[in-house]
Design a protein that fits this description.
By secondary structure, this protein is of the alpha/beta class. The protein has helices at about 15-20, 25-35, 50-55, 55-65, 100-115, 130-140, 190-195, 205-220, 245-260, 270-275, 290-305, and strands spanning about 1-10, 40-45, 70-75, 120-125, 145, 170-175, 175-180, 185, 195-200, 225-230, 235, 240-245. It has an eight-stranded mixed sheet. A two-stranded antiparallel ribbon has the order 8-9. The longest helix is centred in the C-terminal third of the chain and has 18 residues, at about 290-305.
């Protein structure tokens, strides 16, 4: 089973030092952790910000990630677009017409080219808010792989692409688009989590991730995709940026687990998109361990009380 560690890099204010770098506690922490464990990850870079805040902040980010030999792929948030009429009315791709989505892809790819990056192979919509028009716009833009599915309806994820693919929660192809979804577990605490909980650093503990990844591998999954953002590793408290210790521990523990697996089990999105492996059936969605979920719930409750 191929494990993809993916990081969405985005900014809404233009203050990249605060939102992405976290004054040294965000993106640089991720890169340092990955380097320490020898793991290559996929960074989805939001390029529309160039048209609002200039090229330099994103060029600095892209160059730094490329220095570490990581995979860079395209991420777009309509709200960030500055020079496309009506694009900022909603941040969800599926609220826009096919023509508007094509226009946003064209703009995003123009800015991608300005950064001099390797040709885009994989696309992820902001909040995964993709639909059938998004897949059509991807194809017309020359992009044939994506990561735009997620069954966790409790989070900010708003995908309308789930029903377009036959195989649920694993890699599949539909209409010429190969999609690698953000992976979910079936929660043992549905009253608290909802039916599904996705594999995001802020959503589940490292223990839960290890538990689920082991069982996904044993039940025939082609791939597992984990999601995070630079902003998950620091917190703004009284106008001061401080490390988020819980999420930092989770990333370290997860990377230690991934690094101990055979090299063939760790892949970038570009590598998987080029190989396009597919299963023959939909594997079962793994149910998380109740004991681990309870530990996470208690830990989160304690953290909220400390910060109250």
């Amino acid at each position: 089973m191929r494990i993809h560690l993916t990081i969405d890099v985005e900014c809404y204010s233009g203050d990249y030092d605060r939102e992405v770098w976290g004054h040294g506690l965000g993106l640089e922490f991720i890169l340092g952790t990955l380097s320490r464990y020898g793991i290559r990850a996929t960074f989805f870079i939001e390029t529309m910000g160039i048209v609002r805040w200039g090229e330099d902040p994103l060029r600095r980010i892209a160059v730094r990630i490329a220095e570490e030999k990581h995979d860079l792929q395209l991420h777009l948030h309509p709200e960030v677009a500055h020079n496309i009429a009506d694009s900022r009315a909603t941040n969800r791709f599926f609220d826009h017409t096919l023509a508007m989505q094509e226009q946003m892809f064209a703009e995003g790819l123009i800015q991608w080219a300005r950064l001099g990056l390797e040709r885009v192979a994989v696309f992820r919509a902001g909040d995964l808010a993709a639909d059938a028009n998004t897949l059509a716009a991807m194809l017309r833009s020359g992009i044939t792989a994506g990561s735009n599915r997620d069954l966790d309806t409790r989070g900010s994820i708003q995908s309308r692409a789930n029903s377009l693919f036959t195989i649920v929660n694993d890699a599949d192809e539909s209409g010429g688009i190969y999609d690698m979804p953000v992976s979910v577990l079936r929660s043992p605490l549905p009253f608290h989590d909802g039916i599904y909980r996705h594999l995001q650093i802020t959503a589940v503990s490292a223990g839960e991730m290890r538990y689920v990844l082991e069982r996904m591998g044993r039940t025939g999954y082609v791939g597992a995709t984990i999601l995070t953002h630079p902003g998950e590793f620091f917190t703004v408290r009284d106008r001061t940026i401080v490390p988020n210790a819980k999420n930092r521990r989770r990333l370290n523990s997860l990377c230690a687990y991934i690094a101990a697996r055979p090299a063939r089990d760790v892949s970038t999105m570009r590598e998987t998109a080029m190989a396009r492996p597919r299963g023959t059936r939909a594997p079962p969605i793994v149910r998380g361990a109740l004991s681990l979920a309870l530990v996470r719930m208690v830990s989160q409750a304690r953290q909220r009380m400390v910060h109250f």
